[in-house]
Design brief:
eight-stranded mixed β-sheet
Length: about 220
Amino acid sequence: MGGRAHISSRRTASAGCRWNHNSAYYSELVSDAALRGGVALDVGCGDGALLELLAGVCRHVVGVEADPATARTAAGRVAGSGTVICGDFMAAQDFAPEEFDTITCVACLHHMPLETALVRMAELLRPGGRLLVVGLSANKTIADWLLSALMVVSARVSGWLHREGTYRGMRVARPCESLDEIRAVAGERLPGALVRRRLYWRYSLEWTKPLAVQP
């Protein structure tokens, strides 16, 4: 398949789930996914920490991760209960339409073209399925900068209390779109999407795909 390669599910050492500004939202995402179970896709799954948690509440999980070493770590975490694909989510060609009950995307959407990525994720959701994004946005207005500054103290204190850490190989990129721009695109492409500013310089996007209209 173009743009992806299956990683062996051979068990590898698990580094555990470190607390950081992304994993702070994992329990919220997992609780939402548990309402449906079924099949979940984690776009940009990193070392598989969220994917492993999703495997505990979903029948099957699929992760996509671009970095080979990180993808191997993720595969080890879900051996026997999921699949990890090493490659570019946007280049993968053979996901079936309406294949997933839940799609999560944490700190990864800003690495992809916003509108195209949202449309692709929407196409892969089953009717009634949920898209759950935790992302980063750019500061472009005075309000953006002020609200960002107000988060500094709570973020630093939380990081110290939880011994904040990340995994080796985590990709970093600056977001391009402001929260207002993200909200506008989501409103056009995902009618009814809820986009909220959150702590730790994050936003959440939640969208339920409408059920098919019966003839």
